[in-house]
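Good morning,

Attaching, inline, the backbone tokens for the sequence recovery test we're adding to the shared suite. The designed sequence is right after.
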């Protein structure tokens, strides 16, 4: 995906795509979906209106129309030729025994504050959960982490804003207590993501780190435990060094 984010969440019979990554759906995201046997998207959630998160949305939806669309900035969906609804705290549904809970953005955040408007989604099965937050900043994380009524504990946490120092704060990590932190960032990206402070906080939290800039595309299977594989290790080449593929620190 390069410097962007796209996460496919599959239950037994349903599929939801959280963000599409940058433009050119036929370049990356559609071939990946087809290769995985996905022929229909039951849901598409666009965390916010930044091209590295929704740049391929229009082309994707034209080729594979989603059943439902949610967006952190729903007023911008028309720009993509889409219609849908906003992400609002309290939205919840279940597919095949897997629960999806929208935790953010708070309705008080101004629409023009794109990162702070990011959809925050927790996906929970019987034993494990995944927490996704787009580019939500540390202030939004702290606000949710300070609420005792929210269940944030998640085995797997996607680092906010590609590992930027503005997200994945100590309070968020303490509330989620992840065993694995995913970082979606481009190889040698110009932003120098992930920031060393984020890597340090993840290490101090005792979490394994999976990085798309080093490991390539990541696949995680949730069952009694969580198992993962990395494209870089599965597609070996003689000139490519073997990655750590999320070995615990």
């Amino acid at each position: 995906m390069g410097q962007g984010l796209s996460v496919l969440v599959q239950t037994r019979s349903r599929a939801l795509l959280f963000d599409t990554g940058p433009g050119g759906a036929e370049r990356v995201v559609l071939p990946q979906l087809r290769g995985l046997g996905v022929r229909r998207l039951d849901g598409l959630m666009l965390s916010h209106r930044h091209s590295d998160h929704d740049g391929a949305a229009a082309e994707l939806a034209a080729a594979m129309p989603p059943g439902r669309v949610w967006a952190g900035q729903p007023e911008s969906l028309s720009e993509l030729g889409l219609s849908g609804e906003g992400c609002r705290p309290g939205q919840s549904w279940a597919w095949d025994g897997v629960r999806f809970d929208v935790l953010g953005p708070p309705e008080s955040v101004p629409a023009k504050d794109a990162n702070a408007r990011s959809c925050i989604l927790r996906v929970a099965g019987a034993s494990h959960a995944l927490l996704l937050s787009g580019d939500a900043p540390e202030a939004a994380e702290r606000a949710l982490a300070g609420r005792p009524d929210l269940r944030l504990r998640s085995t797997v946490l996607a680092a906010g804003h590609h590992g930027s120092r503005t997200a994945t704060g100590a309070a968020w990590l303490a509330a989620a207590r992840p065993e694995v932190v995913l970082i979606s960032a481009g190889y040698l990206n110009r932003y120098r993501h992930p920031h060393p402070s984020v890597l340090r906080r993840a290490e101090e939290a005792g979490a394994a780190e999976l990085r798309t800039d080093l490991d390539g595309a990541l696949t995680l299977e949730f069952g009694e435990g969580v198992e993962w594989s990395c494209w870089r290790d599965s597609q070996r080449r003689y000139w490519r060094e073997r990655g750590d593929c999320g070995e615990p620190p």
